[in-house]
Amino acid sequence: MTFFSRSPAPSPLLGQGDETDVDVSEALDPPPNAASTMYPKCAACQGLIQNIIVQALDKTWHPEHFRCTHCRIPIATQKFHVHAGSPYCVEDYASLFLNKCQGCRLPIKDVVVTALNQTWHPDHFVCISCGTKLLYKGFYEREGNAFCTACYEGKFCPKCFGCGKPITETAIKVHDRKWHEACFRCGRCRRPISGPTFRVCEADVVCVECSEKGREEGKNDTSSYFEEDEEED
């Protein structure tokens, strides 16, 4: 025969680290001749529980003895998390065990973005230059920082001497100038220079045909060859 109130079945724990509740029930007064062994024992102090019973983690507790493992505050009437079989209040569990956002340094309680070997809140993973959110977008990494495409190309990619736009792939380099392959054209006839040989005349690169015509006109061209330059991502 038991002398404790019939309490509802405790809510099943949601798994280690999940937030859960405790089951609190109240013992009925036993008959005068009831043995003390009829009372459950508190998992913390091993004393008999004669009044309110806290049921959690498959054990019974005095309300004042069911505490957060870290800060030691009573959590009998609060939600809590379980880690390695021990209860923690919501605040301590977050600060001790959750990933921290590299952007705001606070615990990440929901979606975690992992990038650059670090973790972020989705709204805090942004371009370091302009602040554009980078989730679900391509980005460039430089010296441990994330850049959106526009900022990276504008800051770090060489500009094409022909069109002025950033060069993100293979470049053709002549002395200190670079071109997109499609922009590398004869400075006189404006046709693409597709052969391996071209010539330099003053500030222009010229195709062989135009150079031959220039020689007939007394212009001094210097023969040159393609020098391809692979741009790094």
Question: What does the model show?
Answer:
The chain has 233 residues and is α+β, with helices and mostly antiparallel strands. The chain folds into 3 domains: 80 residues, Cysteine Rich Protein; 56 residues, Cysteine Rich Protein (Ribbon); 42 residues, no CATH class. 11% of the residues lie in helices and 24% in strands. The chain has 3 helices and 15 strands. A 3-stranded antiparallel sheet has the order 1-2-3, with no helix packed on it. A 3-stranded antiparallel sheet has the order 11-10-15, with no helix packed on it. Strands 13-12-14 form a 3-stranded antiparallel sheet. Strand 4 and strand 5 form a beta hairpin. The chain is rod-shaped. The N terminus is likely disordered.
Q: How many strands in all?
A: 15
Domain count: 3
Uncertain spans? 1-16, 223-228
Write down the overall mean pLDDT: 79
CATH names the topology of the largest domain as Cysteine Rich Protein
Q: What proportion of the residues form beta strands (DSSP E)?
A: 15-25%
Topology order in helix (H) and strand (E) letters: EEEEEHEEEEHEEEEHEE
CATH architecture label name of the largest domain: Ribbon
**Category from helices, strands and their pairing:** alpha+beta
Subcellular location: Cell junction; Cytoplasm
Domain LIM zinc-binding: 40-98, 99-158, 159-217
Keywords: Cell junction, Cytoplasm, LIM domain, Metal-binding, Repeat, Zinc
Region (Disordered): 1-30, 213-233
